[in-house]
Request: fold
Amino acid sequence: MLDNKISEIKNSFTADIKSVSSSKDIEDIRIKYFSRNGLIAQLFEKLKDASKEDKPELGKKLNLLRNDLTLQFDTVKDKIILSDTSKENIIDLTLPGNEFVIGSKHLLTQTLDEIKSIFKGLGFSVAGGPELESDYYNFESLNFPADHPARDMQDTFFISKDFLLRTHTTPVQIRLMEKQAPPVRAIMPGRVYRNEAVSARSYCMFHQVDGIYVDTDVTFAELKGTLISFAKQFYGANLKYRFRPSFFPFTEPSAEMDITCYLCHGKGCKICKNTGWLEILGCGMVDPNVFKYVNYDSEKYTGYAFGMGIERIALLKYGLTDIRIFFDNDLRFLKQF
Ligand code: DAH
Reply:
């Protein structure tokens, strides 16, 4: 009886497997023969009713049948999967690949890179110092006397009585001169902090580059020559500029450098407050009092120094009007540079 059944299943399986042409056919055969209630499982079920003597022999035959059909099934299944061109399995080699998005340097980094490369060309090296600074380096050694109104020029974030977030990169000049005897010629870029209300014109955190050159016989004319060369390389050879007297505790005499307004080209407008000029940096001859703090002989050495805000000079170069744009991380802005 079971013998008949076995050959019946064999025959029908042979016929079914021959006519397979898709993954769906394969799945149908799997269900029909190999599933939990499939034809093979049903035969094994019948084994229970066989007599004790017949059981071993029949069991063997059923196992053989199952192994034989499984082998055939797997072979055909592999072939079908490999040749299946239905939608899920197709690999379309003509499809364009995924685009790699390549980032770019932030405009501030680009600006700083440009400043560094110009000053390197003028013989300056690059130095750095800490953002958490002491009152001594940020003020005292730069000739800001205690309780002197000059300290009010810079609204400071104090950490404690003696420590603060540096309000300018000028303290790095002191740190450098303490370590090194003249000649010293370096720029000092970095982040600075001021306790100011955030607006289009000011931010509580921004970036500066200071510079200093100390040697025997350094003159104000050299200071002007260096800064004019920098400004022309940065803004273009046709740039118009002027130097105006100013005051900083650490330089004497002190000056500020202006360039013609990028918007009105000197005619006077809202941006330049009708003056036609925009200030780009502060500078001056290093005050002999500062040299005292670093044990430089002010009879022997003279020096010049300067400092500029990186955001500010970038705003002026690209005709932007709001400093906050540098820190918004707005891709519509960043992608343009
Ligand atoms: N530290 C000044 C500021 O933050 C800028 C400055 C002016 C730096 C003159 C200098 C300098 O080195 O000589 O406003």
The first helix runs from residue 2 to 18.
